[in-house]
Amino acid sequence: xxxxxxPLKVTEVRSSRTATAAAALKHRARWPVLSExxxxxxxxxxxxxxxxxxxxxxxxxxxxxxxxxxxLLHPPRMSQPATKIDRHRRQRRVLRAVATLEFFKGIFVxxxxxxxxxxxxxxxxxxxxxxxxxxxxxxxxQSAQMFLDFADSVTDAxxxxxxxxxxxxxxxxxTEAYGLWKERTWAEWVAxxxxxxxxxLEVRELLRGITLIRCAFLVGNIAIVLxxxxxxVSNRRERKANTMAASA
Length: 248
Fold this sequence. Notes:
2 strands
């Protein structure tokens, strides 16, 4: 069947200008129906992209619209820059992932605080010895003796202090997780500052002995700090640009 007799049906129209152009195309060509033609837009508000405008102009103002129809049905792939909405969507996903991580950190620290409270008025040396026996660790080893000595030196006052610190730290983690989930600027600053302050401690622990867990914590913390710095700087630039545009 020749292309000039192939029917045409426009199935997706996203703006009034596109609707007018589609109606003119259908009236001028007078083709009864062809699968689907989609007018791709460059923004979710329905504005035509540069490629869409060019194709519509070619169809509406050329004497032979059938020559440009294949270009409309199979448009060339053009690389378009990421829009602001896509960038915000990606940032939201990463921020919520970090918020989820901080939430689970808070849960873990709360559990540690509860364990500290449960050990108050208990003989920690017996609990430490039972733990070593459960893990099949010889108590004659130097590391086991250090662990037993530490358990013997822990007092109830230290347990209460550890529980208070754990609950305060968990409250900070929960607050930060809530702020990051809601994309609050103060939460981004809290995540950046807290992660940056933990870097020297993690580097010191890594210098004492390189392990896979310590390396993973250090790399993950560095990634979070750098991402928070990127979010803070990009948001500040965007606010500055919006302010200049509003005042112009």
